[in-house]
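testing teh design pipeline on a random one, pls ignore if ur not involved
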């Protein structure tokens, strides 16, 4: 979903799974679908961890616990704190669609699989890389108090644990930062350059 990014302040869902691969994020059977309905993919997010073989909720999985089960909305569960090496495995873009479709706007981890990280950015989900120590602090804070909030400041490129006051900077290339701040995908960006492109082509001809 195209959204402008500025400052996101939200409660978090702690998904403390290292090497959480794209098959866990969205099972392979969903890849055959031709829909781009965000709800379809959001419902499939972490499906086989959220539900058992009979379709019943797995009560002890974090996303089904009452304190973390409320659907994401502004200021609530817009951030996932994930384990290290988030999004490993296949390069399926559907994994990013699932996270975006669920309503998550930021995933924080100590490391991401490169292709998945780029897919997230293309789907208007911000991947934030922090130190392992800060990641573990966030897990401890959120699990101790599910109402704890984290602030992600895109212009300043900082993430802050509002409970402890600790903050870290994160990297974001200038082009993707510009696109996120303006709600542009790659085509939108090109369209902002339409006059320049037309002028260039007219000079060439």
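output:
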């Amino acid at each position: 979903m195209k959204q402008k990014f500025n400052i996101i302040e939200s409660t978090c869902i702690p998904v403390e799974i290292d090497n959480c691969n794209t098959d866990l994020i969205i099972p392979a059977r969903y890849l055959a679908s031709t829909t781009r309905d965000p709800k379809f993919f959001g419902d499939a997010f972490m499906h086989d961890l959220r539900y058992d073989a009979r379709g019943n909720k797995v009560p002890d999985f974090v996303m089904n616990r009452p304190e973390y089960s409320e659907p994401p909305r502004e200021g609530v569960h817009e951030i996932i704190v994930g384990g290290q090496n988030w999004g490993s495995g296949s390069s399926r873009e559907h994994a990013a669609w699932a996270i975006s479709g669920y309503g998550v706007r930021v995933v924080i981890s100590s490391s991401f699989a490169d292709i998945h990280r780029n897919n997230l950015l293309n789907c208007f989900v911000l991947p934030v890389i922090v130190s392992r120590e800060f990641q573990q602090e966030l897990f401890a804070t959120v699990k101790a108090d599910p109402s704890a909030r984290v602030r992600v400041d895109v212009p300043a490129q900082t993430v802050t644990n509002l409970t402890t006051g600790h903050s870290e900077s994160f990297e974001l290339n200038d082009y993707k930062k510009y696109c996120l701040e303006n709600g542009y995908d790659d085509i939108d960006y090109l369209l902002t350059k339409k006059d320049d492109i037309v002028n260039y082509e007219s000079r060439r001809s």
